[in-house]
Automatic annotation (TrEMBL):
Its cofactor is pyridoxal 5'-phosphate. Keywords: Aminotransferase, Pyridoxal phosphate, Transferase. InterPro entries: Aminotransferase_I/II_large, AspAT/PAT-like, PyrdxlP-dep_Trfase, PyrdxlP-dep_Trfase_major, PyrdxlP-dep_Trfase_small. Signal peptide: none annotated. The lineage of its organism: Bacteria, Pseudomonadati, Pseudomonadota, Alphaproteobacteria, Rhodobacterales. This is aspartate transaminase. It catalyses: L-aspartate + 2-oxoglutarate = oxaloacetate + L-glutamate. One of its GO terms (molecular function) is pyridoxal phosphate binding. Residues 32-381 form the Aminotransferase class I/classII large domain. It comes from the Bacteria. It comes from Pseudaestuariivita atlantica.
């Protein structure tokens, strides 16, 4: 009989992919399913980006690139970050990887081992807890509360740090809640962060903020640059989830280690995708702005509509493209609500518990779907409630 490692047995998953498979199976049986489960923009990658990828293939970019990414792309990432966040970035500290996820995995592999503690947001992106457990480190949840707009509270985070804490993961704007942490809390966290703790700031939704809010990047704090891993990428901003393009800015002292991880894991990112990513950064910004404006329209609709449903209340979703309503008033658990909405209303949503224990009493609805479909989905949910 085959015996798997304990580490692999501890690895979790992202249930959005399972819900997607279930929704697709129901659709294949002829059911009309509206998918508000999946976390990816429902827009095509802008044409000029697609063309750049095709051109790169035609021009013969078929081989390996440097493990950390094409120099011209790393320079463009540094220039883009400087423009967006007003913070200078050394292109040699930028490491391009296939999507947002590899940076999380690599950061946790660097700091996680039995005896170490890693803090992560809960409810939060499920891969954080999964890979922390895989590493053997103890996952220490940072509880995010509805009353605080799902922003973290710096005093609570700092109070949970011990001499075993090696890494803190934060994510703003956040998946699954849409929460955005105010600058005052980030200032306080940075000021109190002990020297022995690294911080992974997952800013993959940095360009998706609403209501005139401005993104606060951890890059804007020079005092923690020697401990900061800044994660961002192309997946959400440029509707490029399937291209597998992401990057991180690493502390100079960790660049060699992360490059070794890249070489062991994937050698380099697909060359033509890197040229597409370059076109995304250097090309017109209008397609991104139009997409974000469309998300904002849907966001306003869905938050109001959810607040109007019996037994539900929904906090203002300030960023990303998710609404995270409290469903306690319906008398359903998160898993029951997910199941009922899918099987009886034909609407795919994700139980809050898929994002950690603190997600009980909530479901996630992605508004990366047309306004028309969102309206139909709300009507159907109202029907089953
Ligand atoms: C908070 C967060 N970080 C990272 C990712 C991963 O992005 P990618 O598809 O580029 O790996 C996601 C995707 O849903 C996310 O929600």
């Amino acid at each position: 009989m085959l015996r798997l490692t304990q580490a692999v047995e501890r690895l979790g998953t992202e249930s959005a992919f399972q819900v997607l498979a279930r929704a697709q199976a129901l659709a294949a049986q002829g059911q009309d399913i509206i998918n508000l489960g999946i976390g990816q923009p429902d827009f095509r990658t802008p044409d000029h980006i697609v063309e750049a990828g095709i051109k790169a293939l035609r021009d013969g970019h078929h081989g390996y690139t440097p493990a950390n990414g094409l120099p011209v792309l790393r320079e463009a990432v540094a220039a883009d970050l400087e423009k967006r966040h007003g913070a200078a970035v050394d292109p040699d500290c930028v490491v391009v990887v296939p999507g947002g996820k590899p940076t999380m995995f690599f950061a946790v592999l660097m700091f996680g081992e039995p005896g170490a503690e890693i803090m992560y947001p809960n409810p939060g992106f499920p891969i954080y807890e999964s890979v922390i457990k895989y590493s053997g480190a103890t996952p220490v949840p940072i509880a995010l509360e509805e009353e605080k707009g799902f922003a973290f509270d710096a005093d609570t985070v700092l109070g949970q740090i011990t001499d075993k804490t090696r890494l803190i993961i934060i994510n703003s704007p956040a998946n699954p809640t849409g929460g955005v942490t105010p600058k005052a809390e980030i200032d306080k966290l940075v000021a109190g962060l002990p020297d022995h703790v690294a911080i992974l700031s997952d800013e993959i939704y940095s360009e998706m903020l609403y209501g005139g809010r401005e993104h606060v990047s951890l890059l804007q704090y020079p005092e923690i640059r020697d401990r900061l891993i800044l994660l961002d990428g192309w997946s959400k901003t440029y509707a490029m989830t399937g291209w597998r393009m992401g990057y991180a800015v690493w502390p100079e002292a960790l660049v060699e280690t992360v490059q070794r991880l890249c070489i062991n894991d994937h050698s380099c990112v697909n060359a033509s995708a890197q040229y597409a990513g370059l076109a995304a950064l250097q090309g017109p910004k209008e397609p991104v702005l139009e997409m974000v404006a469309e998300f904002d329209t849907r966001r306003k609709f869905i938050v109001d509509a959810l607040n109007d449903l019996p037994g539900m209340r929904c906090a203002d979703a300030a960023g990303a493209f998710y609404a995270f309503p409290n469903i306690e008033g319906t008398g359903l658990s998160a898993a029951e609500a997910q199941d009922l909405f899918l099987t009886k209303a034909g609407v795919a949503t994700i139980a809050g518990t898929s994002f950690g224990a603190w997600g009980e009493g909530f479901v996630r609805l992605s508004y990366a779907n047309s306004l028309e479909n969102i309206e139909r989905a709300i009507d159907r949910i109202r029907g089953v409630l």
